[in-house]
Amino acid sequence: MADLKERLLRPRPASAVNLRDPSYRPSASGHQHFHGVDVLGLKKRGQGLRSWIRVDAAGNSQVIEVDKFTVMRRCDLPARDLRLLDPLFVYPSTILGREKAIVVNLEQIRCIITADEVLLLNSLDSCVLQYVVELQRRLITAGVGEGWQSEGANLSLRMGNRNFDNMFGNTSPDYLPFEFRALEVALEAACTFLDSQAAELEIEAYPLLDELTSKISTLKLEGVRRLKSRLVALTRRVQKVRDEIEQLMDDDGDMAEMYLTEKKRRMESSPYGDQSGMGYSSAPVSPVSSPPDGRKLERNLSIARSRHDSMRSTESVAESIEELEMLLEAYFVVIDSTLNKLTSLKEYIDDTEDFINIQLDNVRNQLIQFELLLTTATFVVAIFGVVAGIFGMNFAIPMFDYPGAFKWVLVITGMTGVVIFCSFMWFFKYRRVMPL
């Protein structure tokens, strides 16, 4: 256990947390899967330790507990990048390419990818565990494929058959560097998770909207309101992932920074460190006297070698950018399809709302027409009240002496009311106020 701790964690300054404290117990499980992970140790108070799942290039996994300063020093990351991985804060989806690591914050997948390992925040979320299992499976499968590749190359050398070069050549996109494989699994997990949520939203939305068009109720309208709020939130998350992938595809410099294996290989193979890779010469030039011929020849050879290595590294970086761009394009199509699916659902909701508004306007117009009819009929009936009020006054009228006078008053008043009502109807039809 002490050897494992020293191999995983580099020495720390005295101001940092003491990893030799008895309370610090990193647990290693090797190839074992994560059954019953202790979530209580995700962030221990007073120690600043977090639980991480470490997966190396061979597919081995273990749970370790380190503080953020150790992670910063190990992966050469600033503190602001680690804040993106803090589960206590909600940050939008982000993919950052740094000098020695890739910081990935995609939905539930929050990890740091280096050229040799993946540090994933420990969690009981099923997406995190599925990410670890899928990454292990692909790494083990890739190791088997590389074994077949080497055997096929040896067999082709023995038999002299060129078909083995096409069969086992290293031109397949499956043979990606470790960091690209880990990034691909993270992109796949995020895209699959968002697409599944979009599918669940579709399954719930379309029947509810169809029922709402047939019968409008307050309960169904409240359900559509909640559904639309969820749709807006999910669309914002999908749009952020899509914009992040598109931004990476548009910037060749960011994609070149993410090629960690190539940068590590150049750094390890270069005898002059980083300066030779940039084309600088380590031999100083004296301003007083010219250097001897031997030193001048050595310096020229060093410059030529540096330029040759720089051109080779530029070509390899261009190839790696093409590989990474193809990888990003594949998942850009997937996330764009999910976004189109959500956009279609939003348009269907908007169409349903427009249809409901048209129905409500139609009902409102019918109510206004009915109210207009009632108002016209009330005006006609009010004529009888006026006539009754006039003849009910206390004064003598000679017409009251005739026995049939009351009948004629009713007939004349009724005919006058019918004529007035028909005149109003004709006016409403002429003005197209209501269909008759």
Automatic annotation (TrEMBL):
Residues 224-251 form a coiled coil. Its main location: membrane. It comes from the Eukaryota. Residues 266-295 are annotated as: Disordered. It is found in: Membrane. GO terms for molecular function: magnesium ion transmembrane transporter activity. It holds the Pfam family MRS2-like. InterPro entries: CorA_TM1_TM2, MgTranspt_CorA/ZnTranspt_ZntB, MRS2-like. Residues 281-292 have a biased composition (Low complexity). Keywords: Coiled coil, Ion transport, Magnesium, Membrane, Transmembrane, Transmembrane helix, Transport. It is a multi-pass membrane protein. The keyword Coiled coil applies. The chain crosses the membrane at residues 372-396, 408-428. GO terms for cellular component: membrane. Belongs to the CorA metal ion transporter (MIT) (TC 1.A.35.5) family. Magnesium transporter that may mediate the influx of magnesium. This is Magnesium transporter. It comes from Ilex paraguariensis.
